[in-house]
Structure formats: C-alpha cells, structure tokens
Write a structure and sequence with these properties.
Layout: E1 2-4, H1 14-21, E2 26-29, E3 41-44, H2 49-61, H3 63-72, H4 75-90
Parallel strand pairs: 1-2, 2-3
Length: 95
C-alpha cells in the first residue's frame, strides 16, 4: 500500500502512477491531478486524518487484498524480483 497524504496540489502524482504500475493499492489526497489519474485510488480529503485512517484500515482488512499481498510477497517471489532487477542492471547474475 502507498499512502500519499498531500495537502498541496500534485500536478502529476508520479508516486501514485508508479504504485499503480506495479499494482499497489493507493490511498491519496483528493487534490491536484491525483483524482484525474483514475484507476484503483482511494481518495481522501486533504488533512482528513480520520478518513485517511479509515481507508488504511479498510485496505489492510480486505481479504482480497491480503491474499494478493501474500501471493505477491512470498520469499520466492521477492528473491526472483530482486534477481531480475540485478540482471537488468548488471547483466546475468551468477547462480
């Protein structure tokens, strides 16, 4: 989960775009260009602490989200992803 509790307008919202690209749930403030990005963004009013807290708890308690997180972040999956990154940066990693 990525939380972007901006109080000032973000015209592009690059952090939100990057999180969406990798399928990470996003909770962000309803300011600037963030609402226009579309997709699976949970929007909260800027400075709305209680609403932000409620959305975070909602995402964390979602059974669907829990199972996706558990599948995406197994030890094997994380190691494979790290190796892919190393390979892309340094060439073929030794085994």
């Amino acid at each position: 989960m990525v939380v972007v509790p901006s109080i000032w307008p973000e015209y592009l919202g690059r952090t939100v775009l990057e999180a969406q690209y990798v399928g990470t749930p996003v909770i962000a403030s309803n300011v600037g260009g963030i609402p226009e990005l579309g997709g699976d963004i949970f929007l909260v009013e800027p400075g709305g602490r209680e609403m932000l807290k409620a959305e975070i708890l909602k995402v964390l308690s979602s059974e669907d989200r829990k199972s996706k997180i558990n599948e995406a972040f197994t030890e094997e999956s994380v190691c494979r992803q790290a190796k892919e990154i190393y390979n892309s940066v340094y060439g073929h990693a030794s085994r």
